[in-house]
Queue: 4 jobs
Job 1
Amino acid sequence: MCNLREHTAMSSISPRDAEWRQELRDAMPAKERTAIPRAKMAMLDPEYRIHCNEEVNQGLSADQAHVEASRCLDCPDPQCVTGCPVNIDIPGFIKNIQRGDMAMAAAVLRNTSALPAVCGRVCPQERQCESKCIYNKMKKEPVAIGWLERFAADTERELAERPAPERLAPKGIKVAVAGSGPCSLSFAGDMAKRGYDVTVYEALHEIGGVLKYGIPEFRLPNSVVDAELDSLRDLGVKFIADTIVGKTLSYDDLMNEGYKAIFVASGAGLPRFMGIPGENFINILSSNEYLTRINLMHAGTPGFATPVPRGANVAVIGGGNTAMDSVRTALRMGAKKAMLVYRRSEEEMPARREEVLHAKEEGVEFMTLSNPVEYLADEKGHVRAMRVQRMELGEPDASGRRSPVPIEGAIDEIPVDVVIVSVGVSPNPLIPNSFNGLEVTKRGTIAVDEQLHASIPTIFAGGDIVRGGATVILAMGDGRHAAASMDEYLQSISE
Ligand code: FAD
Ligand code: SF4
């Protein structure tokens, strides 16, 4: 597996930067900075937001961002940077916000992150950069790095004069990309800037991968993703939807069209089920299907005919971000009771802390230490109840989390009309099965070397199809790493 830390170099501070940054440090003593409380972001009221799809987090105001940026101590050895999977120069962008140079703040971010407005919204900052901020050691709330990232990226979008990205002269070399999620988008941007002729093929009718079909509007508005897509189009990247690589277009078709290499970033979109009795009853579906119907096919929006199961009692099985997105979506689709059924305790939930809090504010019922063991149906085959095994925590398992152990005889029957299963995903096997000679791992992910080079010389791969399900920032980091590797490979074969 590639090492992103080795791949992304930390930016060094120029003497000029050092000068103004010292001035900022001198202007306010550290004691004064650390006395400033962390900013509070404005949020939509829960009563209002569960009836609409508007973005819950409203962003920081310019004044709030300035004050929050001044909390940052500009540490000489900033540990926050080591907590970021792609080592963004965090104090560098924050100090530019403090001095009001928003174009430079965004430029520092874009040095390492292709999608800062997206990452500022969806990265698990509390487990990454913010968990390493020196304020934690002082028993104070960390600098709101993620909110400041979002602020810098959003403000840059509104700047009248955005600096055009530098692009090398066209090389006349065509490369193809399979999939259009964050991994592909960061790859495509880097390759276009290097002068390659990039075409992205997407199986679905919309470009954006999970950013569009998975993560709901109330967490990541489509307009934010669309703005990033427009920037890529400005760089010359071509997007072709409704095209399944490996089916609509075979490997040979792509080679015959003159592509010199292919980047596969087809994600891990194959839902898993639990394999328990009754899981095939009507109105039991995967999170992927549920969210895709609503987010991409507009189920529930007036004027659209896409069907989606609705009910008064909706149970979502799982404890990750996908489960949290599904259960909050179910509330917005009119569920009277939206339950999150998770076999461990809240402490072990992989979902972002913020999503857990928002779900609770919105009235989601958390049924932790509970695991469905069977579904029951009415005479027409519609699910009507689930039998839930109550659990307790035992010894830690391989993941380091305490494993759930059934409490003998503790099984309850709970009425449900709709069940959304969100217990994980697997890599889509279509490309591995259709590209002859493409090696896969035991988990079904595409096997790659340190350079993200696959077993077929013309193929590179990254993101969830290699990692088997990860995060936006890791997928994006892979895209950048693969672009550097493919560029090197294409130069080596043209010499
Ligand atoms: P994807 O985003 O999955 O994109 C792959 C694309 O390839 C898809 O559009 C797919 O249709 C397309 N494709 C597949 N096969 C083919 C083919 N044969 N030909 C052409 N196209 C093809 N991560 C976070 O960091 N924070 C979060 O808050 C978060 N929330 C999430 C919520 C949900 C509901 C889900 C599902 C995931 C979430 N994640 C989150 C995880 C994150 O979104 C993924 O790790 C990331 O999107 C992976 O990026 P990717 O580009 O590898 O794949
Ligand atoms: Fe600023 Fe915290 Fe990073 Fe120090 S650790 S540079 S205070 S964000």
Note: DSSP finds 20 helices and 15 strands in the chain.
Job 2
Amino acid sequence: MNFSELAKPTASVTDKFGRPMRDLRISVTDRCNFRCTYCMPAEIYGERYEFLPKPEILNFEEIERLARIFAGLGVTKLRITGGEPLVRAQLPVLIERLSGIDGIEDIALTTNGFLLAKMAADLKTAGLERVTVSLDSLDEEIAKHMSGRPYGPERTLEGIEEAARVGLDPIKIDTVVQRGINDHTLVDTARYFKERGHIVRFIEYMDVGNRNGWKLDQVVTAKEIIEKIGREFPLEPLEPNYYGEVATRYRYKDGSGEIGVIASVSMPFCGDCTRARLTTDGKLVTCLFASSGKDLKSLMRSGASDEEIAAEISGIWSKRSDRYSELRESNTEWSKRNENGSRPKIEMYQIGG
Ligand code: SAM
Ligand code: SF4
Ligand code: SF4
């Protein structure tokens, strides 16, 4: 699909490649109740690991203020993420504050689902529209291995059920695929959620950060994933829903729903990447694979006005030329050689995917 065929939304700020800033992913905590092997390996993030101290973390007033400024610059969608966003105290209070911001059309949340069953109703009441729930396998042992915790998929599945019951839909299920780990369970995952009408999105394992030991040969490409599922359940491609959609969509030919693949490694989608990210400690990051971000928290806490902060954000976005995945793809030898130790990169749990 050539995205230039889709209408590009107008926005007040665009980057060096003409990409507007439409989405803001807000990481509300760097802590997590899981230790997924590909994100926060337990051997690194052990008992003694020091997460951000409370004074470094943006409070709700600060998050709301920044979100409002971003909305004024063209952002229409917010995604709340982490770490695990549901471990942040009083999260529904934040959602309620964000849902009152002019210009914000959509608020979503990405969660591992462990605490979702008890929080779904409050989140919905607060104004959350939909959830994406991460679940890598329905197989008890594989789920435990990948989550780095002695939890099978049950609690997450209960969370999904409750989210559906309270109307946090469409529900998307994100499944990171790792060769030799969970790739033999993808058809089971597809079948289970096909029967329940939820959209599974299979994500190619990415070289985010420097700590998960990523290797190119652990990546199962979107093409392989689609072939594997298509052999069991015939599929046909679908058009993107909107400009900048990260997943490539397919529908089941029997009309029972759709799946997606997020092919960040084999088919990069930098060309229409409209996503800005705000870390838990208030840094603006313009690419998932960035080494650092601009410290908006210090600017804000030093007394800058909304206009000054907006000017800073615009200035950063207008100079943005990130296209890490395209550069990686154009030189897979480079990826193989460097694996994920090539240069310092922010870790996934700090920017939330
Ligand atoms: N804790 C929440 C969760 O797991 O949904 C939100 C934050 S998590 C960092 C966001 C998403 O990033 C999850 O769907 C997770 O599976 C995905 N993710 C983390 N590390 C990844 C990697 N190396 N490659 C691909 N996806 C990854
Ligand atoms: Fe936690 Fe999500 Fe990272 Fe897993 S992927 S360790 S649930 S932040
Ligand atoms: Fe966007 Fe960076 Fe990912 Fe490319 S690599 S799609 S610029 S976040």
Note: Confidence is low (pLDDT under 50) at residues 1-11.
Job 3
Amino acid sequence: MKVDVYATIKDVEKEKIRHADAVVIDVLRMTSTVTNALSNGAGKIRLIGDESKARKLSERENCLLGGERGGKKLDGFDFGNSPLEYTKQKVSGKAIVMTTTNGARAAEAACGAKSVRLCSFLNVYSVSERLKDSEHVAVLCAGTHDLFSLDDCLCAGALCSYLKADEENDLAIAMRLLFETHKGDLTGALERTKHYRYLKSIGFYEDLAFCLAMNTHEKVPVMEEDGWFV
Ligand code: MLT
């Protein structure tokens, strides 16, 4: 198996991932939120980068609408991007369109790969189990506004640590080594990072604790042919 980790989606060339199993990571918070929503029984989730396209799709399909800009819920939306909002009671059996600043764009960038799955610390072991027979895994870290984000890359390192690939690109090696050093204290490793501090400053402290708990979920969101994640 070969694993390539990409720090941001601007580093990803469509042609290079066409035959790969893609894994999208946006730890804080999109991939954690979608994993929790589907674990809580949501029927299907569609990720759209553009806000107005997301609004139109949710109207056309008559489904719920979730997501954020600047980490905050948008006017007229049913949900923000906090995983804790997506409870069984609210999401069971529902189709949800979501738009988020970085994560949804990363999911769109992964379209066209052989398969597309969503990974976070919540489900990283389960993701590795689904990929154990893959020949090529391409890990797309969402990053923040096209810049490297340590939370996503550290989670990519956790995935690499489970996958034990024969071949890894340099970022995969670096992040695997970093994860192995810090796996006992993910909060300690991430609490000074920009997006962690920002989410804390706008009141999402509980989300941070939730998103940094490892392997609490078995659900692995996977993109179907029609672009919806189930
Ligand atoms: C994103 O997609 O940029 C994030 O999930 C932002 C957030 O933490 O809400």
Note: The first strand starts at residue 2 and ends at 6.
Job 4
Amino acid sequence: MIKNEALSRWVEEVKALCEPDQVVVCDGSEAERDRLIELSLRDGSLLQVNPATYPNSYFHRSSPTDVARTEHLTFICCEKKDDAGPTNNWMAPDDARAKLTPLFKGAMKGRTMYVVPYLMGPVGSPSSRVGVEITDSAYVVLNMRVMTRMGAVAVDALGDRADFVRGLHSTGDLSPERRFICHFPETRTIWSIGSGYGGNALLGKKCHALRIASAQGRAEGWMAEHMLILGLTSPAGETHYIAAAFPSACGKTNLAMMVPSLPGWKVTTVGDDIAWLRVGDDGRLWAINPEAGMFGVAPGTGSKTNPNAMASVKHDAIFTNVALTPSNEPWWEGMDGDPPETATDWQGRPWTRGSGEKAAHPNSRFTVPAKNCPSVTADIDAPSGVPISAIIFGGRRAKAAPLVFESLDWQHGVFVGATMVSETTAAATGAVGVPRNDPMAMLPFCGYNMGDYFGHWLAMGKKASNPPKVFHVNWFRTGPDGKFLWPGFGDNVRVLKWITDRIAGRAEAKRTPVGLVPTPSSLDLSGLGIGDEKLPHLLDVDAATWKAELELQRAFLTKFGDRLPKELWSEHAALEQRLSS
Ligand code: OXD
Ligand code: MN
């Protein structure tokens, strides 16, 4: 049944190791989906949500200890520890295989082993890559068929080549003690056991499209980034594509499919999480979205914050760890209307409105085909991808970073990305709200030494004769009263407008030590009612705060020793100088 020899050999190897009852090679068909759903309804791993209001949609409740990415159990397994760098957990490949082989041994006894060929990227694109995930979870298969172009289409793209990414996944016994997510960039292999959670188990996403692909992209001269891709069209019909990197659960999905508050402006969505970028013949960076679906954070998503996401989840969706209303509809904090009086919470317990408890898990998710989203266009399938005019870095910062600034040039932009700091969120286990360095929002996702990664960014800037302009935004700045200063959501178009006006040479900016900040009159704040009082706080670059920031940057950059490109130290020194002059 499997014609590709390398694939067939690997499947036999895994079968001998994991000892499943049966092997199913997935073709991506509707009939296959129906079979998997029926089976999952029968064994209780899926429940159907109200088919009248949410047709073709299902609900999955995960183990309560398996609800987010587990970064402390995620490893880069390359031969030399230094090649993983100071920001990754490292395990020697032999040690990883020795540790995980006994866990995989017989792990699929009594279970079905699914072989899931998938294509990351549009059909026919030179940027696209094939992976195969072997898993014992039907929930994983159902999610992979939404998140990737799965089945026959991937088998066709692979042909008889052997260079596919090999991902082996088993839920094992779901125990965090026996949970490991191991990446072998040198052999483009992933071994993940003990978790069924999205980022740990849907191996096409973070494991392949970011960790393995970042290392592969460096070797082959392209980039894999934790970025949304959007198209912004002005009332005059001028379109710019923008790629933006934000840490997990900082509003990437919201920005990617925003409904602009300014009349006549339009946002189209190419991707909401991952971008693969290469240099085009025209010297620009061109981006594809390797994914075909969205795995979005549910809480906080409502018709006011993200109407396009709300439209997307109305059919053909898989909900994970949300709450269910008495009429069997999904519900989460921040959804429209009043909370229900009663519900079943994400753990299946009765919940009441006044309880003070959260009904949905803060990292509960929806999985939907990208094409469900009203703002997604045919761009998502364009084999060439789209040309990028601007790259945006963004973090969740109460202080320090102004609403927006432009970097002085590409090299300074790389420094801005490399020194990004953001407060942690519920997307990963651990404390929430703690500031941490998250370079290019790739801290948990870079498959090699980040010192070398910064070097790769600098090299890509040299390779591109017409690179995008680089900006930094912060929607989360608070005022003296501790409240957010910026309304965010649809009003973020005002910042995007300023960015495209800068590209076109139309908007003014003021030089500050950190970069170019809008002059108050260059930002379109019409109808916003935010003026003289808040604006200075939003755009302020406070020298004392940034001098403290310099020290944090120094401590972080020092970690990379001689793997840090000297250009970043020059940028650090230049910032120091600008701050003291
Ligand atoms: C995600 C994440 O799921 O970044 O996209 O955690
Ligand atoms: Mn993400």
Note: The mean pLDDT is 96.
